Amino acid sequence: IPVDSFDLVIFGGTGDLARRKILPGLFRRFRSGQMPAEARIIGAARSDMDDAGYRQMIREAIAEFGSEEKNDAGGIDAFLGRLHYVAIDATGDGGWSQLRDLMRDGVIRAFYFSVAPSLFGALAERLHQHGIADASSRIVVEKPFGRDLASAKALNATLAEHFDEGQIYRIDHYLGKETVQNLMAVRFGNVLFEPLWNSHYIDHIQITVAETVGVTGRGSYYDKSGAMRDMVQNHLMQLLCLIAMEPPSTYDADTVRDEKLKVIRALQPVEPHQIVRGQYEASQDGPSYRDDAENPRSFTESFLALKCHIANWRWAKVPFYIRTGKRMKARSSEIAVVFKDLGHTIFEGDTARHRNILSIRLQPNEGMDLQVTIKEPGPGGMRLVDVPLDMTFADALGPDREDAPDAYERLIMDVIRGNQTLFMRGDEVEAAWAWTDPIIEGWEARNDVPKLYDAGTAGPEDAMMLMHRDGRRWREIK
Ligand code: NAD
C-alpha cells in the first residue's frame, strides 16, 4: 500500500549511513510501489555537488550496498530521477532558500538528521527560521541520543524548542526488525504464551547480541562510547522492554511506549559483581581492540555482560542476563525465554533436565523456535529428547519475503505514515540513561579494567561465571 506523497530531506545525505542504508532502502520501497512515484528525496550535506553528481553517488551506493535490486537498471534510473541535492552547512546560511524552493506544498515534509547530534540544534533552528518546517513536519534523529542523562536531556530540550514530541522520530533500528515486531505478535496475538509469561513459569531470560566485526575504522568514535552506550542503553534495553512489558491496551504509539517506560523505570540498579566488561585481544584474524581504537591505554569495553532484575510482580526474582560484544565467535542475536524445569517426571530413568525454551532469533535466519520434549523415535522405550519446533520466517512465509522491508526502510515508511510506535520517546531515552549512568559512573570510579578475551570466542571467562554462579548457562553463540 503506497504511503502518502512526501518530500524527504536527508541531512548528511552523502554520509555512510545514507549511502549504505537509507537510500538503498528507499530504492527498495520505490520498487515495491510503496514509495509514491512523485515523492521527492533531497540530499543535503556540505559537499559542493549538483543533482547529477548526487544521483551518480547514489547509483554507486546502490551498486555497492543494494541487494538483488541493484540489477534493475530501469528502476534505478526512475528512482534517481526522484533525487535532488542541495549543498548546506547546518551551521551556515547558504542553501536554505534553495531547499525551501524545492519543497512542495501539500505533501508530508520529513527531515532525516543523519549527521552528528551536535548539529541537531542548528538544523532544527534553521528549518524554522527559513520557513521550511511547519507543525506537520517530522524529524528523524539517529543514535547516539546523548552519552548520559544530562546530554540526552539537553538534546531533548533543544529539539523541543522547535518540534513537538509527536514530530520527533528517534530511530532505534532494532525496533524495525521483523522479528522484534513478531515478538509482540507472538506475545499478544496468541493465547498460549501470556499465561506463562511470568515468574511462575519463567526461570530466566537471556539476550545476546554478538558481532564478529571489530571497531576497525570507527575506533575513535567507539572508544568514547563502549558497549554499554553503543548497544545496551538503546538496542538491548529496547529488546528487554518488549519482552518484559505489560500488555498494552492497544497497539498504539503512546500506549506501547508507556508500558516500555514502566519497565525501564522498574529496572533495579546493577551491582558491580553483576557486570563483566571485556575487551578483545589480537588473534590470527585481526588486531587487538587497542590497536583498532588506536589507543594503547584504552579501558573501553568491547564486550559487556550483566544480570539485572525488574522490580515488579510479573518478574519478581527472574534474572535477565544480557550480553553483547564485538569480535565474537559468530554474528548472532537472540532472545531466549528459558522456562522452569518440570517439578516432577513420570518417566522412570529419565534424569536429563528438559526445559522449554522459546528462542527468538534476530540474526541469522530470523525466526523463532520453541524447544519441546518428545519421545525419541524407535523401540527404545520412553526415552525423551528435546527438539525445536522451528519457524524460520523465510521458510514459513515463502518467497514474498524477499520484498519485505528491512529495518530502516520500514521505519522510514512509518515516519511518513506518522506512526511512532517503533520509535523511542524522549522520556524513554532519558529513563534508560538514568539507569545506565550510575553503572558507568561506578566502573569509572573503581578504575575498572576490562577483562581480556580472545577474538572469535564467546567473551571473557568471567562472563561464563556470571551465569555459572547461579547454576545457569549461556546459550551457545552460533
Ligand atoms: P558520516 O561522517 O559518514 O557522514 C556525515 C554526513 O554529515 C556527511 O554527509 C557530511 O557531509 C554531513 N555533514 C557533516 N557536517 C555537516 C554540516 N556542518 N552541515 C551539513 N552536513 C554536514 O556519518 P554517518 O556514518 O553517515 O553517520 C551520520 C549519523 O548517523 C551520525 O549521527 C551517526 O552517529 C549516526 N549513525 C550512523 C550509523 C552508520 O552505520 N554509519 C549507524 C547508526 C547511527
Automatic annotation (TrEMBL):
The biological pathway it contributes to is: Carbohydrate degradation; pentose phosphate pathway; D-ribulose 5-phosphate from D-glucose 6-phosphate (oxidative stage): step 1/3
Q: Give the matching PROSITE patterns.
A: G6P_DEHYDROGENASE
Positions with a binding annotation for substrate: 173, 177, 211, 230, 326
Reaction(s) this enzyme catalyzes, per UniProt = D-glucose 6-phosphate + NADP(+) = 6-phospho-D-glucono-1,5-lactone + NADPH + H(+)
What's a single GO MF annotation on this record?
Answer: glucose-6-phosphate dehydrogenase activity
Task: Give EC number(s), comma-separated.
Answer: 1.1.1.49
State the active site.
235 (proton acceptor)
Coiled-coil intervals in this record?
A: none
Name of the protein this chain belongs to: Glucose-6-phosphate 1-dehydrogenase
